[in-house]
Design goal:
Na+/H+ antiporter like fold, mainly alpha
Length: 404
């Protein structure tokens, strides 16, 4: 079988499985993303292991991973498109408090857990930083399905995730520079300056130049010109986020969506992007998370460490982000909802965890505990959000639906 036919086979299996599992999940009253995550685990090395069948070539695994990266970028681009910059700006205080405390509290608890289980200082700090990460893509998809993304909680959640992403990347980069003996105070200041430069340049381009560019492209006789422009800008923003700002590419794609949300042609772009994303790339992304996890590799001797890491991950993020939101003025119900939305670690947690293996910061058994934490937090977040956003009979739910 040729490489192309192998690739076609894998794509067909992934897409059929994702849509079928998503449908079953919704029939059971859960968000479709939960089913897609679970079927990904079954298709992965935990059970079927479709990426390592005898007739599948190894390089196809990397291709699927790259398609999954495009999927999460498109997902965050859509999340940005569905918002307005002024709405997000009005929730900056909540986002800052929830985002910062959502990193500080789980990071501190993670460090303490590592020391309690005999891990050295470097491994304990790294464990804490892993627990400080957040994957908002899972929560964003769930909130979109529940039609509450533009509620005050939804807007604050997305803003909190941006603060979370920037802070975790900053702390992780500082930590790695300290371990290598490079950088020092000058390196830390340079990293902060690069992040600020990215935000300023991306905002300036999106505010002053992008609307005019979109209008000109819309007048040209080009098939799907606006859609192509949107994808190109999204990719360039993602590239700039990593190369200029030293933050994740998904942060750049989210910023790109926010910039396009100001344009009159937004609806045309959104329709095309959603068809492309949900028809192909986003299902691959959710399935790929499961393909990256091997439950059979879990070792029984680290069960207590695994349970402790999972418990601290859930409590630390929920408590930290929730208290931050409450301190910034949200109600208790809204604060609990926002804190729950920050629990998922998803692909961001996997990326941070892989750095630990790359730099030799954690042993294989400790890495297995971290992977189990990422799996559990990713799976439990959608049903928790579904339960928290369910409207009790006879109760006025307008508060949590309040527009910013």
């Amino acid at each position: 079988m040729s490489t192309f036919l192998q690739f076609s086979f894998l794509l067909a299996i992934i897409l059929i499985a994702a849509k079928a599992a998503g449908y079953l999940s919704t029939r059971l009253g859960q968000p479709s993303v939960l089913g897609e995550l679970l079927i990904g685990i079954l298709l992965g090395p935990s059970l079927i292991n479709i990426m390592h069948l005898s007739f599948v070539e190894h390089e196809l695994t990397e291709i699927i991973k790259e398609l999954a990266e495009l999927g999460v970028m498109l997902l965050m681009f859509i999340a940005g498109l569905e918002l307005h910059l002024n709405e997000l700006a009005r929730n900056t205080r909540v986002a800052a408090y929830a985002g910062i405390l959502g990193v500080v509290v789980p990071t501190a608890l993670g460090w303490g857990t590592g020391r309690l289980f005999g891990m050295d200082d470097s491994a304990s700090v790294f464990l804490g930083l892993t627990l400080g990460a957040t994957s908002v893509s899972i929560s964003a998809q769930t909130l979109m399905e529940l039609k509450v993304l533009r509620s005050r909680v939804g807007l604050s959640l997305l803003g909190s995730a941006v603060f979370d992403d920037i802070l975790v990347i900053f702390l992780l980069s500082t930590f790695l520079a300290t371990l290598s003996g490079a950088g020092g105070l000058g390196g830390i200041l340079l990293l902060a300056v690069r992040m600020i430069i990215f935000v300023l340049l991306s905002g300036a381009f999106g505010y002053w130049l992008l609307p005019g560019l979109v209008r000109r492209i819309s007048r040209l006789p080009i098939s799907q010109g606006i859609l192509t422009l949107g994808i190109v800008i999204m990719l360039l923003y993602g590239l700039a986020a990593e190369l200029v700002g030293s933050v994740a590419a998904i942060t750049g794609s989210f910023f790109a969506g926010l910039m396009f949300a100001r344009c009159r042609e937004k609806e045309r772009l959104e329709e095309g992007v959603k068809a492309l994303a949900y028809g192909l790339f986003v299902p691959i992304f959710f399935i790929n998370i499961g393909l990256s996890i091997d439950l059979r590799g879990m070792q029984l001797e680290i069960v207590w460490l695994t349970l402790a890491v999972i418990l601290v991950a859930v409590i630390g993020k929920w408590l930290g982000s929730g208290l931050g939101a409450k301190a910034a003025g949200l109600s208790w119900r809204e604060s609990i909802q926002l804190g729950a939305g920050m629990i998922s670690r998803g692909e961001v947690g996997l990326i941070v965890a892989s750095i630990g293996i790359q730099y030799g910061l954690v042993r294989d058994d400790e890495f297995s505990a971290i992977v189990a934490m990422i799996l559990v937090t990713t799976i439990i977040t959608p049903p928790i959000l579904r339960a928290l956003f369910s409207k009790p009979k006879g109760l006025n739910f307008a508060a949590s639906e309040e527009k910013a």
